[in-house]
Amino acid sequence: MTKPDFSLAPRSQPELQPFTREEFEGRVERARVLMTHHRLDAIVLTSEANVEYLAGFVTQFAWTTPSRPWYFIVPRTRDAAAVIPEIGTTNWLETSWCRNIRTWPSPRPDDEGLSLLTPFLRGIPAQFGRIGFEIGAESRMGMPFGDFLKVIDAMSPTGIDDCTLLMAELRAIKSQAEIDHIRHICRIAGETFDHVPGFVGIGDSEKDICRKFAADLLLRGADKVPYTSIGAGQDGYSSIIMGPTDRRVAKGDVLIIDTGAKYGGYFCDFDRNYSFGPPSDEVARIHDVLWRATEAGIAAARPGNTAADVFLAQARVLEAAGVPVGNVGRFGHGLGKLITEFPSNAPGDTTVLKPGMVLTVEPSAMFGDHMIAHEEDLVITEAEPELLTPRANREITRVD
Questions:
Q1: Containing H/E element for 261?
Q2: 3-class secondary-structure state, position 392
Q3: How confident is the model at residue 229 (pLDDT cuts 50, 70, 90)?
Q4: What are the sequence ranges of the domains in the chain?
Q5: Beta strands in 80-137 (DSSP E)
Q6: Which CATH architecture is the domain 21-171 placed in?
Q7: Rounded CA separation 253/318 (Å)
Q8: With a threshold of 0.85, does the pTM exceed it?
Q9: Phi/psi of residue 52, nearest 5 degrees
Q10: CATH number corresponding to 176-399
Q11: What is the pLDDT of residue 9?
C-alpha cells in the first residue's frame, strides 16, 4: 500500500475571521442579564473555556501548568477585570478586549493574586450579596482549593455560590460565528476521516494510526487535537474512550477513531468506523442499525423537543432491532468550547432544544463482548437540524 507524504496534505478550508469585539460585548451583556436572574453580583472565572469565551484570552501557556491561576471577573454593574500573572500581560493585551488588568509576579505561593483579587471583589456593589465561582457539576476551578477557602473567609458575609449553570446557559446558544467555527473543524476532520483508508493498513499499531490521524488533521488546518480515542478488535472493540495502544490491526478487525479536534477554540466531536477486510454479517447489521438510530436522533433534534426526546428516538431504533440499550448514560451531548457540554441526550434531561444549540448524536451498541458506536454533530435551527459533520456512509468503510 502506498503511503502518503503528509507534508503535502492540503489545507483545503480557508481560515475564518477572528471573533469581533462586538461578539464579546454581547456575551458579557447576556452574562449580566443571567446574573440578575441567578441573583449574583459578579462571576469569577478561572477555567480555559469560560475565560476564553468571555475575555477572548487565547494562550499556549496558561492552562498547561497549575503553577499560576488566572482570574477574569465580570461584575453585574461594573467593568470586567482580569487578575493575571505578570508573565501573561503581553499575551493578554494581544488577544483580549479587556484592558482592565491587575498583575503580580507569579509564581508566588504565599500570595498567588489573592491580595489583588479579594479587594476587587469586596468593592463590587452587593445587591444580592453573592458572587459566583465555577464550583458546580462538570466544572473545574483553575485555582488552588486552599486559596478558594481563603477567598470565602475574606468575602464574609458576602456568600460564594455557583455560576456553572449560568455559564452553561450562556454558552448553550451559539452565535453564527461560533457555529461557523464548529462547522469549520468538522469539515477538516471529515476530510481526514475520508483519507484514513489511504494511510492505514493491516499491521499498523493503534499508536501509529493515531499519530498519522493527528498529523493529517493539523496539516489540514486544525489548531489542536486534544482528544483522539481509538479502539480495534475482531468484529468490534471493547471501549470508545481508550487508546492508543501498541496493538496492531489485523484482518477482520473493526477500528473506531473518535476525534475532538479544535479550531479557534471550538471542538468537533465525532467518530468513524472501518472494517479491515469484509465485515461479518453481525458487524454489518449493527453498523446499519446504528446509522438508522443516528438518523432518528437527528430527526428528533428540533426546537421544542427535549434532549431526552433525542435519546429516546435513538433508543427506539436500537430496541426494535433487538439491541439492548441497557444502562447507557446518554446518546450525545452539547458541544462547543468543550468537547462535552450541557445538555445531555439522556433519559430525564428535559432541557428544551432551541435554535443555536449544537449537539452530538451518539448511539452505541453492545453485542457479545464487543461494541460499535456512531456520532455526528449538528446545530438546532428553526426547522430541520443542520448537520455540521459530513454524514457517515450507511455501510461501514472497508480498508482492503
A1: strand 253-263
A2: coil
A3: very high
A4: 21-171, 176-399
A5: 81-85, 101-104, 130-133
A6: 3-Layer(aba) Sandwich (3.40)
A7: 23
A8: yes
A9: -65, -40
A10: 3.90.230.10
A11: 65
